[in-house]
Amino acid sequence: MSTASSPTAGIEISSKKLHLALFAGGKLKVKAAENSPFGVLDLIDWMRRQKVVPGQAHVCITSGTGQAESVALWLRGQGVPNVSLVEPAALRESVAGNPVDKIDASALARYCAAANPPLWVAPPEEVFILRAMCKNLADMRKLHVSQTALLGDWTDNPDVTEPITNSIQQVEEQITRSEELIKQLLTDYPHLVGRPELAGAWPPPARDA
After folding, report:
1. If you write DSSP's letter for every residue of 42-77 in order, what string do you get?
2. Do 187 and 154 share a structural domain?
3. Are residues 17 and 86 in the same domain?
């Protein structure tokens, strides 16, 4: 966590970019990089060029962005342990008497310095496994819906329907396998039951006999 003299940083996440604001020595500097692990490496290298030791900086990221935890893990994997995920509502509250109207990297960096929020505690590995499984299952179900709709448009052309039918069969097998894996994971880790990641994915919808 940050001290009065340690540097702080805020990262705003967009679909393609990571926007970083670095608050050190009373000065605020900004840098953007691609939204990827390579982008994080770019930001860390840039921080070093600003004479800041990344491992000593306290970095704040807004939670609820979908990718916040991924970026936090990328940072920690590169030697930046002091990462906090900040609720947008907390950021909007008055900080040192100054309300925050716009949530951006600069506001995050200043909030990090003023509020010194607690460090993020990463969920256990099985939570990330569950998320990946549920995303894969959701993608397979969407593909099944689109392929089934496509099949309905070509019922009179066997040259088209045969490969589509084969594709649907393969997708159905993958869906069944994914559901089996999720069921086993929930059996192995009962505390995962009720996790928000399962919404819309579990229990599986009833199938026609």
Report:
1. HHHHHHHHTT--GGG-EEEEETTSSSHHHHHHHHHH
2. yes
3. yes
